[in-house]
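pasting for ref
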Amino acid sequence: MSTDTAGTADGRGRPYVIVGASLGGAKAAEALREAGHQGDIVLIGAEHERPYERPPLSKGYLLGKTPREKIYVHPPQWYSDHDVTLRLGTAVTSVDPVAHTVTLADAGRIEYAKLLLTTGSVPRRLPVPGAEQDGVHYLRRVEDSDRIRAALVPGARVVVIGAGWIGLETAAAARTAGAEVTVLEAAELPLLRVLGREVAQVFADLHRDHGVDLRFGAQVEELTGEGGTVTGVRLGDGTTVAADAVIVGIGVAPDTALAESAGLALDNGVKTDEYLRTSDPDIHAAGDVANAFHPLYGRHIRVEHWANALNQPQTAARAMLGQDTPYDRVPYFFTDQYDLGMEYTGYVEPGGYDRVVFRGDVKANEFIAFWLADGRVLAGMNVNVWDVTDPIRELIVSKRVVDADRLTDPKIPLGEL
């Protein structure tokens, strides 16, 4: 067994180790250097690609509009220029917090002074017969996007299972490519749990207007096939939807295997404080995997979106260096589907609001939707309306009661509210 060691048993001279060569991992390495860390940094990733951003995989890159080189977080030379040891194609199998070591798949070990987990999430697998056949796709890695793009050709019969963000974005890409698209969703509307009925209907109308066959209340029983290749999706009502390709987007789960091996506190992800510190003071977590205490909401929340992977590593890096600053950014995400561009700011649990109001023209897909509780703005979603994220965020953070009539009047600047 080989062991990579650095420094003495008390941790002096040991590297700062980041497991997860993702957007979060790369930004953490960058933040450590910007905060003045002079010691060794080791960034470990199971993929063979250097760290890249995932949103383009279901948007511009999948559509062929974003060149591959544009998805990467840093140029290849950035890591050596900043003395960051980048170990790709290397899986970490366990963490020993007592010995301060991570064990690699090849049985090697790396000691650490501080450890950051940016392991992200993994797609939920479809638990039906036939789901392992060729032509069944999940979207998480760049090679997944490459395979899906190859299947999106004019006239191809594409079935998307799940009408969440990934499902709808890949459906839009498939229609844009000229494929025939059917979306199967168990709920009554797309994104119903996330957005509620009022706004979910906007996305149902959008996809129907673009020729997508939306089927709600659908129960998938089996993926049929011939010779190991998928040919269709059999539903609970006995009908079969023909398919040349099936894209499964039924959600993700936080990748907590390493945290579990370390005995860290888990609760819908790796539980952390507002500084992204786990139950072990020398281990932090950021991004999809972190269920972090949020000072604004007074509770732990886990957000599976790009903005957390981009911004949380700065907080984690500072905390690793003893420069504690709480992570209190308001959650944010975005989507692009056909000619609809959307930004969502805020956080609302299902059923956690009492009213949705609209500002602008909903039918023309140029509006802002606000989720309210007791007259206070919890979240805002701007659709094809730009440069309003900051005032929406200020409305949320202020927690002030607003006049709904003024809020919905486009003539009144949001800043005045």
